[in-house]
Amino acid sequence: MRRFCASFLVSLFAALTIQPPLALYAQEKPQPAPPKSLEELQKAIKTELDKNHLPGAGVALVSRGELLWCGGIGDADVASKKPVTCDTEFRVGSISKSFVALALLKLEVEGKINLEARLHDVAPEIPVQNAWESTDPVRIVNLLEHTAGFDDMEAAEVYNVHDPYDYPLLEVFKRFQEPQIARWPPDTRMSYSNPGYGVAGYLIEKITGEPYDKYIRDTFFRPLGMTNADYRFTAANKALLAAGYDGKTPNPVGYPYIYLRPAGDLKASPGELAKLVQFLLRRGMVGQRQLLAPESILRMETPRTTSASRHGLRLGYGLANYTEVAGGVVTHGHDGGIDGFISSYRYMPEQDWGYVVLLNSTGSGEALENINRLAIEFLSKDYPKPYKPVTALAPAELQSFAGFYVQRAPRSQMLAFLDDLTGGIRIRAIGGQLTHSSMFGKPEPMLSAGKNLFRAEKEPEGSTLFFADEAGGMAFTSMGDDAVSYAVRINPLWPYTRVALLVLCAVLMLSTVPFALIWLARKLIGKMKGVQHLAVRVVPLLAVLSLVAIPFCFNALHASAIGTANIFTIGIYMATILFALLSLLGLVLALRVPKTEIQRGVRIHSLLVALACCVVALFFASWGLIGLRLWAAQ
Fold first, then answer.
1. What are the CA-CA distances from residue 236 to residues 74, 227, 267 (Å)?
2. Model confidence at 383, in pLDDT bands (50, 70, 90)?
3. Can you tell me the distance from the alpha carbon of 266 to that of 100, in angstroms, rounded to the nearest whole number?
4. Distance CA 91, CA 359 (A)
5. Secondary structure class of 75 (helix, strand, coil)
6. Chain center to CA of 217
7. In terms of DSSP bridges, do strands 474-478 and 464-468 run parallel, antiparallel, or are they unpaired?
8. What is the rounded CA–CA span in Å between residue 543 and residue 535?
9. What are phi and psi of 624, to 5 degrees?
10. DSSP readout, 304-332?
11. How many CB atoms lie within 10 A of CB 396?
12. From CA 541, how far away is CA 553, in angstroms rounded?
């Protein structure tokens, strides 16, 4: 379970302050020389932790299938200075999903479930709405590959602050039904959905007749030698659990409960997850026992239910397993994030190496990314890194892919408006080469790796695939360093117009602040006696202030409060409504004030600001942000 609260706050604040369009393809930063020894790697990890003020990291390295090193760097608990060790337990968030997928693969091998079966046939009691059910049903495999078209969690669905820890999963789906509405035909686009894995956990319970966590514990954790790992908060893992921090140490974030436990509530140590890495490298072997067939492990690593995979893209999200380019090689694995913790594991079957990195702070995702890169560079240093040769394409072929693309597979429908604000991706054929950039960014080359397949310069194989979407238009998916799940080509006129319009509105709205300082100062010193219609000046200012109040309310929320009714979530609800009403009132006042009773410049400025507020309010309404009730099931 990726940490919902932090990403939501940052994203919404960026949107409300009308940031410039963000580059979807980040330019590569200069990196230090790769570590050549274990000591150099440990020193580099420590430097990364210190640079980002992170308390600690648990790390395990597997080379040639054997545990090379497992240990900790830094503190598991800042107050007591308890060090991180190989056995320190961490909340590992979405890495939990890997075991849910393994469990269903095991049940399929035993003939107890068919992953290709329709969800409605296996569990009709789960409320699912799919307008394409007759032709494109939601199948169990869609839950595991995030291709059901489901939304991610509602805000109130993230944290369990009122119910018992083991609140029945089926009751969660009945209470929060909005995420289980297919937003496009299943089997076409990948969009990360925690509720889908909650449903997958429920299927384990229905098929086995026992709690999902018990089945996984008995079938995988204990046979693999993962002695203390568990989804439940037990006495054993509680004693070993690191304190989690949100980047503002030394205050730990505690242990907030979550509803979708199968999707993100696993506790495990670096040493225990190294056993998972070895299990996957050994293609399902535990000692001399074949616990799961090699074909099942390969299926886990292979995406099959997206349009891109059917058109030939090897990379993507399989069954709780990313196959993607990282550090110049193709790796498999998963990441995780939950309050106070972020984590990652990756492995390379062809070269028989893998690693685990667990951090007890959400203070820096970049630090996790950099430590991952260091681990990959160290473990792969003795192996060749061949690049797929460049294929020459005719100018007409390159031009057929050119155009302006926008993302159309939002993880959270509530945050889908961010795709509007970040603009889109420009694909251009320049000098006989295809390039990509953000709306206003510098073109970066894309090297041809096939007729419709492209890669970046330091990617070993094609990671970006162009194909015809279900409507017959051009689309692309990219699983390189900057993933794009599903983007479609559109006319760029409206996206550029929208950005220009919103920037203009932001400038006008911000102008109310210095303008207000001037007339308020003049009012205080008695220079505005007899001035009429002050409301024309005041109302647009109040509209702007109500808009500014929204990100302040978000920033004041602590994680588990985001889905509850409290002063800040109610403040967000009231501020969005107040902004819309004040915007409209300001426009009415500016239009109705007699021209002879107000200065022409004041009237024009107030009218322009009110219009700007109304335009932004209309955007808010179209994005579903007016009257936003985070505490309510939608």
1. 22, 9, 11
2. confident
3. 11
4. 9
5. strand
6. 28
7. antiparallel
8. 12
9. 75, 25
10. -SSHHHHTT---EE-SS-EEEEETTEEEE
11. 8
12. 19
Pair of tokens at residue 423: 């603009």
> How many other C-beta atoms lie within 10 A of the C-beta of residue 400?
14
Which of helix, strand or coil describes residue 106? helix
On whether the CB atoms of residues 458 and 450 are closer than 8 A, the answer is: no
Query: What are 189-212's pLDDT values in tens digits?
Result: 999 999 999 999 999 999 999 999
Query: CA–CA distance from 426 to each of 437, 487, 495, 500 (Å)?
Result: 5, 11, 11, 17
Distance, in Å, from the CA atom of 516 to the CA atom of 441, rounded to the nearest integer, reads: 36
76 neighbors 56 (Cβ within 8 angstroms) = yes
Distance, CA of 627 to chain centre = 24
CATH number for the 395-492 domain, one of 2.60.120, 3.30.1490, 2.40.128, 3.30.160? 2.40.128
pLDDT digits (tens, 9 = 90+) for 55-90: 999 999 999 999 999 999 999 999 999 999 999 999
3 state SS of 224: helix
Residue that has been written with the tokens 């400025």 in this structure:
605
The arrangement of secondary structure in 4-379, i.e. its CATH architecture, is 3-Layer(aba) Sandwich (3.40)
Q: Are 608 and 504 in contact (CB under 8 A)?
A: no
SS3 assignment, position 410: coil
Domain locations in the chain as residue ranges:
4-379, 395-492, 495-622
